[in-house]
Amino acid sequence: MNTTRREVMKGIGALATLAVAPSESLLAQCVDPGTTNTGSTWWGSGHIMTSLGNTTLISGRIVTQAFRAKKTGSIRSVIWYNIHSTSAPGYSAGTGGNIRVRIEGSDASGHADGTPLGGSDTLTNAATAPSFPKQVLSSPAPVEAGKIYHVTFYNTHSDPSSNYVSTDCINIKSTLNVSPHNPQIPDIEDSVYYKNSGGSWIKRSQTPILDLEYTDGFHQGTPYMESWLNGNSSHWNAQITPTQWSRQNFTAPSTMTVKALCIAAKYVSGSGNLIMEIRDANGGVLRQVSWTNSEVLSTYQGWAPSKSITPLTLNGGSYYSFVLKGTGGVFTSYPLANGSVHYGFSPTIAVNGFCEYSTNSGGSWSGGWTAWNKTQRKDGTLIFCFGLA
């Protein structure tokens, strides 16, 4: 277990629940009301995360993680979050079991249909395996663009009650109470389910942490593997005020036209607006939007309403940033950890860039985020979404 991993376990050990949590829903808008967006109509980190949430692969339980294929082809490997601990209860036991991973189709109700597509791969003694294993299927799984599929996890150990690990996923706090979890992504293609032996499917209030690799080298999935909550004293406070700003640096992955901006944030206190500015490489403001404090959730960090802008073309390969600042009062917006930096997820499914902060109204910048008491980290990404034309 590397140093970063030990810090993660230390930080979340107290949250180590839990085989299952109540079903939850979310109330938010990241895209225009009434619009159903898919992966081709938005860009950004795009996922709210209030914590990590594990589901134990114990006693015959099956866990599935849904996705919509972005292209027709064959998937050859899967990276997932295999969480286990000898010190924090609720994650694993014994050898960890033998975790068989395969891809299955979807039935009429949107659940895994039990029929494997292609081959499988089994991770033996999973409690001593990497936290983010890459499992290569014995034969690639054919998929068709636009259809729903499921990565399925089975514990094939002869005694799965005493030998198991957990899948870990993006967890959504119940006080947000939003559905879909991220409105630009329909829940049907971004959900986690489990089924106990002999039972029915139950939906978690979670989204998968996955990297799916196709045989031609294309990747899809979500690489963000933890949140740096501002309430944790090991992390930067993530406050946004007239003098304390946050900035997300990024390189546009391809030429795209942005028509709307959205940010995940929390209103804390005082009066004033939250400002978001897209800037060019020289710091020039290209577009600006704002939210009143009544438009931003005060219970927990969640999606603020989407704000339309005059269409803006961002050139592929060019450097940009967006800045968050306040006209008054206090807001917060904490980032996610980008698993492509340290944990083997493909950088093609992540925002290429990092977030940082300023304590003097943008006069100087920190050069990275502070998380787990380490400064200038380059693996943080603010939670945002650009609506595309």
Topology:
Blueprint: H1 3-12, E1 42-43, E2 51-56, E3 62-68, E4 73-80, E5 82-83, E6 99-106, E7 112-123, E8 134-143, E9 148-155, E10 166-171, E11 192-195, E12 202-203, E13 206-207, E14 210-214, E15 219-222, E16 224-227, E17 239-240, E18 245-251, E19 256-269, E20 273-279, E21 285-292, E22 302-303, E23 307-314, E24 319-326, E25 330-332, E26 335-338, H2 339-342, E27 355-358, E28 369-371, E29 374-377, E30 380-382, E31 384-388
Antiparallel strand pairs: 1-31, 2-10, 3-9, 3-11, 4-8, 4-14, 5-10, 6-7, 6-9, 10-13, 11-12, 14-15, 16-26, 17-25, 18-24, 18-27, 19-22, 19-23, 19-25, 19-31, 20-21, 20-24, 26-30, 28-29
Descriptive overview:
The chain folds into two domains: 197 residues, no CATH class; 150 residues, Jelly Rolls, CATH 2.60.120. It contains two helices and 31 strands. The longest helix has 10 residues. The N and C termini lie far apart (44 Å). The N terminus is likely disordered.
